[in-house]
Amino acid sequence: QVHLVESGGGSVQAGGSLRLSCAASGSFFSISAMDWFRQAPGKQRELVATIMRDGDTIYADSVKGRFTITRDNAKNTVYLQMNSLRPEDTAVYCCKADIWILGATAWRDYWGQGTQVTVSS
For the chain, what percentages of helix, strand and coil (3-state, to nearest 5) are there? Predict the structure, then answer.
C-alpha cells in the first residue's frame, strides 16, 4: 500500500511564507512526476506545480516567481516553498505522485489527504 502524507499548512498573513511537504511511503518501485494541486471553496481544483524525477518543473502562471517546487528522491518527498503569499492562495493543497508499485503494469496516481493554507489580508 502507498500513502502520501502532507504537512506544513497553516495560517499566515499576506506577504508571508509557508513550506509544504509531502512524503510517499509504502512498497513501490519508482516515482515519476510529483505535483501540487489546490482547491479553494467554490472553485475547481487547480494544478499549482509539477516536478519530474529529473528536476524539470512546471508552474501555474498565478504562482510563477513566488512558489518553488523541489523534491528529494532519496526521501520520496516533494516540497512546495510558497513566498509572497496572497489571500487568493487560500485553499486546500494536495500532492499527487505518479507511482509504479511493485508488480504493477502501469504508473498510477496517488493523492495525499490535503493540507489547509489560509492567507489573511
Answer: 5, 60, 35
